[in-house]
Amino acid sequence: MSTMDISQTTQYKIKDMSLITNYGNLDLRNIFVELNIFDHILQPCMSGTILVKDAVGLSSILKFDGSEYIKIDISKDSDELRINKMFHIYKQTDKSSQNLNSESYILYFVSDEFVYSQQQTLNNYVQGTYSDMAEYVLSKKLKLESSDYVVGNSFGVRKIVVPNLSPFETLIWCSKRAINDKNLSNFLFFENSYRYNFVSLTDLKNQDTVMDILFEPKNINREVSREFFGARDYEIISQFDYLDSIVSGVYSGTFIGFDPLTRVIVQQNISFDDMFKDKSMNKNYTPSQDTNKGGKFNTEMVGSRRVVYPTPILRENSAYIKNNDPSSLNLDETPQYFSYQRKALLTHIFSKRMKVALPGNFLLTSGLNVNLKKQKTSTYDPEDTKDKTLYGKYLIVATRHIISNNKHDTIIEVVTDSVEDTPGKLK
Predict the structure, then answer these.
(1) Taking burial as the number of CB atoms within 10 A of a residue's CB, which of 26, 163, 263, 339 is the most buried?
(2) pLDDT over 50 (residue 3)
(3) Which of 2.60.120.1060, 3.30.390.50, 2.60.40.420, 2.40.10.10 would CATH assign to domain 13-114?
(4) Contact (CB, 8 A) for 170 and 176
C-alpha cells in the first residue's frame, strides 16, 4: 500500500457523486448528508443508501421511477484505496419536510446486475461442474467482463438443470451444491468492492492478510499512517455457542438418504473430522472435546442432528442402471455432502465473530483477511499482553462504509475458526 498523504485518517476525496437520469446528470456532493455502502459474503451484491437534503425540488422533478442511477467515485489519497462504481437506484423512503424550502429523503441503491437479474429467468441444462454453470451465468446472462468476476474450481461433473431461477438465484443455488477438492460444500457467491466472487470458503481462508489492525491507546502524536490501521472501537458479537454448534451438527450427526428410483434407504454417520479438513486460519486449533453423562464424546453423538434428503448414493449397486444408463452414475449429485455440511461449516466459522470500527479504508471489503492484534485489557504478566482468545487472523464477512460531514468510517465484521496462541493459565 502506498504512503498516505492526508492529515486525518477519516478524510476522503469525492471525485464523482452524480445522479444520472433521463433528463441529465446532477452533482450530489453538496446536498448529500450521509452515504452508506454495504457488502457481505452471504449477500450476492453490494448495496447502499444515501440521505439527501433537497432544496431544489429534485424529488418532484425526477419522480424517481427506477430509471435513475448513481455514480460513486470516492478515494483516499491513493488510487489503491478507492471505490468507483455505478449503482441502480431502486427505492425512495423517509421523505419529510425540513423547513419551508427543503426536504430530506433516503435513496436506496444496488448493483445494476441485481436489477438485470430480477428481469430474467433460466431454464438451462449444463453437463459440467457448478463452476462451469457459474461462469456461464456471469458472462452470458449478466453480461460481465472476465475482469469483473472470479470463479473458483468446484469438483464433480453433474447434470445441472436450473429450475426456473433468476441468474443471481442460480448462482446462489449452485454455490450451495458445489464442493471443492476436499469434498467440502463451502462455496459462496458474493460481490465485494473488487469483483463478483464464486469461490470456496477454503480459498478465502487460505489467502494472505491485507493488513494488521492495531488495538492500542490513541495518541495525538501518533503518525497518520499508523493511526490508519488502528481500531477505534470493537464489539464481540459472539465467542462461541456450544448448544448452537451441537444442533447444527458441527461435532457429529447423521445423513439419511432415500432413493425413490431404487427404493433404498442409506444412513451415514458424519463426524467432525469428515467436515473440518481445512487448515485452520491460525496455528493453534483444538476442537471442543466434551464428555457427556453417558461417557461419550460430543463427536460420537450422531443423533445431535439428522438430515433426510433424496440421494442416488447407492445406484452404483443397481444392475439395471449399470446395464441401461451407466454414464449417469458419474453425473449424479452428492447430497451427502451439501445437504448436511453447509449449515455446520457456516455455523462453525461464524461462532467467533467481532465487529470493528476503523478509520475509513476502501481496501477493506468482504472476502479478505486481516490480522487483529488485540491486547489484553488487564494482565498478570506485563510481558504477555496478547489477548489470546481474540488475537490472530480473521476473515472479513461484512463491510459498511459510512461517509458523512467530511468523515469516512469503516465498520467490518470478522470471523475466525481458531486462535494464534495457546490460551494461558490462571496464576
Answers:
(1) 339
(2) no
(3) 2.40.10.10
(4) no
